[in-house]
Amino acid sequence: MSKLYKKSGVDVIKTDNLISQALKFIKTTHNPNVLGNKLGFSAEYKVNKDVTLCSATDGVGTKAILAAELNEYRGIGQDLLGMCSNDLLCNKASPLFFLDYFACSSVNPKQYTGILKSLTKACKKINCALIGGETAEMPSLYQGNHFDMAGFLVGIKNKQKLEKIKSGDLIIGIKSNGFHSNGYSLIRKIINDNKIKVKSANFNNKKLSDMLMRPTRLYHQLISISDLKKIKALAHITGGGLIANFKRSIPKNINFSLDIGKLPEEYKFIENNIEISKKELQEVFNCGIGMVIVIDKKNYKYFIKKTYFKLIGEIE
């Protein structure tokens, strides 16, 4: 694996142990209404026997650095919402309201309003209310126009009948809109190491900056509440890649086969600038699949006709 992003087994063990230790005292705050975070995407809290609230929080990682360097903010707010809302969707919840946190050295009105407009536009797309947030100026922590942002989303879902995953069930991948918000530390290293001038560079006769700043797809726009009744499991494909995230959404004893086929054109940019295998790519990026669902094969025709949906595997 490339030294650019390799994690040692010791590092992984240390992280797992740290989380396990933290959970011991985190759980002391829980009450019987806390249903936990079984899927690892969003957490649930029981309101009554029929209704639960789901919550998710996330950021946009080092894509924020690239956005600041390019002075490009048209999609970064959607990235923030999408990282949270797509996690929420994995618990089959509908968005209710969102809160954001924005930190910078000193508020730049053009930057601030650009990000906020992007976020509000995205919220409207999935009928989500932006009800509050926090803005912090910290010149001792942030330099120039660099910033960071995070979000917190709450959604709701009604009690649903759970269908067991079984042999012969199909795995459908829903296409991503580029890299979404993952792998940007590696992308930025490629840019810096190769001295690529992103503002003026082209890739496949298109502006490289446009390709790198495509916003995260909002999968609530593609999957309806009625669709969710036909879906057995969902996985949001983010950091860690396709296999690791998909495994979180299904029981541990389930075997499956996956084949995503040809990588989208943007992955030529990665492959042309660094020695990396397809397996390694799948451990860092979404590789063109931003959401994965498991369905009964009887529902194949219903889903496969939808835009961006394609068959990528099967439960064995």
Question: Unreliable runs, pLDDT <50, ≥5 residues?
Answer: 1-10
Q: What would you say the CATH architecture of the largest domain is?
A: Alpha-Beta Complex
User: What class, by secondary structure content?
Assistant: alpha+beta
Number of strands: 13
- Terminal CA distance reads 28 Å
| The CATH class of the largest domain | Alpha Beta
The secondary-structure element order is HEEEHHEHEEEHEEHHEHEHHEHE
**CATH homologous superfamily of the largest domain - what is it?**
PurM-like C-terminal domain
How much strand?
Answer: 25-35%
> Order of strands in the sheet with the most strands?
1-2-3-6-4-5
Radius of gyration: 20 Å
Number of helical regions: 11
Task: Give the proportion of residues in helices.
Answer: 25-40%
Query: Averaged pLDDT, please?
Result: 92
Question: Might you state the CATH topology name of the largest domain?
Answer: Phosphoribosyl-aminoimidazole Synthetase, Chain A, domain 2
Number of domains: 2
Molecular shape: globular
Main sheet record: 6 strands, mixed
Question: Could you characterize what this model shows?
Answer:
There is one protein chain. With 316 residues, this protein is an alpha+beta fold. It has two domains: 35-158, 60s Ribosomal Protein L30, Chain: A, CATH 3.30.1330.10; 170-315, PurM-like C-terminal domain (Phosphoribosyl-aminoimidazole Synthetase, Chain A, domain 2), CATH 3.90.650. Helices cover 32% and strands 26% of the residues. The protein has eleven helices and 13 strands. The protein has a six-stranded mixed beta sheet. It has a five-stranded antiparallel beta sheet with strand order 10-12-7-13-11. A two-stranded antiparallel sheet has the order 8-9. Helix 3 (76-89) packs parallel to helix 4. The protein is globular. The two termini are 28 Å apart. The model is unreliable at 1-10 (pLDDT under 50).
